[in-house]
Amino acid sequence: MAITRPAPTGADSHEPVRGAPEQVADAQEPAAGAPTSEAPPAAQPQHQPQSRSSLILILLLLVLVLMQDPIRGALSAPVMQSWMTVFVAVLVQALPFLVLGVLLSAAIAVFVPPTFFARALPSRPALAVPVAGMAGAVLPGCECASVPVAGALVRRGVTPAAAIAFLLSAPAINPIVLTATAVAFPRNPEMVLARFVGSLLVACSMGWLWQRLGRTDWLRMPHRSHYEGQSKGAAFWGSVRHDVMHAGGFLVVGAMAAATLKAVAPASWLRTAADNPVVAVLALSLLAVLLSICSEADAFVAASLTQFSLTAKLAFLIVGPMIDLKLFAMQAGTFGRGFALRFGPATFAVAIVGAVLTGAVLL
Q1: What digits encode the pLDDT tens for the residues 152-180?
Q2: How many Å separate Cα 69 from the centre of its chain?
Q3: Three-state SS across 246-311?
Q4: Which residues contact 287 (CB under 8 A, 6 or more apart)?
Q5: For a tag site, which of 46, 145, 332, 340 has the least CB within 10 Å?
Q6: Cα separations (Å) of 61 from 49, 53, 56?
Q7: What is the rounded distance in angstroms from the CA atom of residue 85 to the CA atom of residue 328?
């Protein structure tokens, strides 16, 4: 008996089915953008980095427990005892000044409008440079805060020469730094005056040098601060957190370097460098650039380098707040790489000359 297939119903019931097999297969696939019944791919576990960090911490604690006897023996060695003594002493003495300086610096950067400086400075650049330099004596702040403040001054129309003078003087001659210097050098009070005079001299000299030789195309106009647009409280605590972590880390590195230099470096090397006045000044100037210590804490590191002369220590205190590794990076990011490549070496040379001249007169 013949089997008949029922005819399809609908508008196309009399049309034969045409098309290649692949066309039929394409017709069976869902259209682009149409919902599919396939399950989404399984999400990756989010706790994998946390699990890895926990595993590393557990392994580290296990290693410390298993090697506690060798570690205890190493720490009891005379060299390590001397290292720990210098390291802890530098941290304990410097940390209160660092925290106070960070708090005051954040308050000035957030609550004092940059237009205040523009109104307070004279219109003539030659007079605005020393006034801006002296403004650093009454506005506490570390070098981490002086760069964005100087950038805000330039962005609001202050002459770059005056902004440069403030940039260099504020971290070096403010009350917190000078008080820390007096505490670090109780037997040499002349160091406070020498640091003030030498730093102000270098800051004004660099401002006048820029006014005479600087070119506009070397200076890139700084961008807005990432704290602008936030509430005052959020900007203040954000600045405090950033500066404490940033400056605190460099303080720890500086304390470790000072302790290592004190405990490990051969005494003959230090005596050789300290006995030659030129080598001593250059060595501590380079050390200030490499260590990149916050200006509120650098006096305690300098005071721990007892082999060197006061003039060499003064060079350390004048060079460090004006040009170091972190300042070079911040200046390049704020004012442009072309500015930093010219400004950094010039500041280093002028700071050394200013420290030597000031030390020869006051020390």
Answers
A1: 677 767 888 998 998 899 889 988 899 99
A2: 38
A3: HHHHHHHHHHHHHHHHHHCCCHHHHHHHHHCHHHHHHHHHHHHHHHCCCCCCHHHHHHHCCCCCHH
A4: 257, 316
A5: 46
A6: 18, 12, 9
A7: 32
- Do residues 106 and 239 lie in contact, with contact meaning Cβ atoms separated by under 8 Å? yes
In this structure, what token pair is assigned to residue 265? 């470096």
Rounded Cα distance, 274 and 306, in Å: 9
How many CA atoms lie less than 13 Å away from 43 in the CB half-sphere?
A: 3
Instruction: Return the pLDDT at 100.
Output: 72
pTM, rounded to two decimals: 0.68
Q: How far is CA 326 from the centre of its chain?
A: 5
Q: What is the pLDDT of residue 24?
A: 43
Q: Do 235 and 227 form a contact (C-beta atoms < 8 A)? A: yes
Structure tokens at 310: 């006061």
Of 167, 169, 195, nearest in space to 180 by CA:
195
What is the C-alpha separation between 280 and 213, in angstroms, rounded?
Answer: 31
- Rounded Cα gap, residues 114 and 118, in angstroms: 7
pLDDT for residue 46 is more than 50: no
Distance CA 237, CA 196 (A): 30
* 106: exposed, middle or buried (Cβ count in 10 Å: 0-12, 13-18, 19+): buried
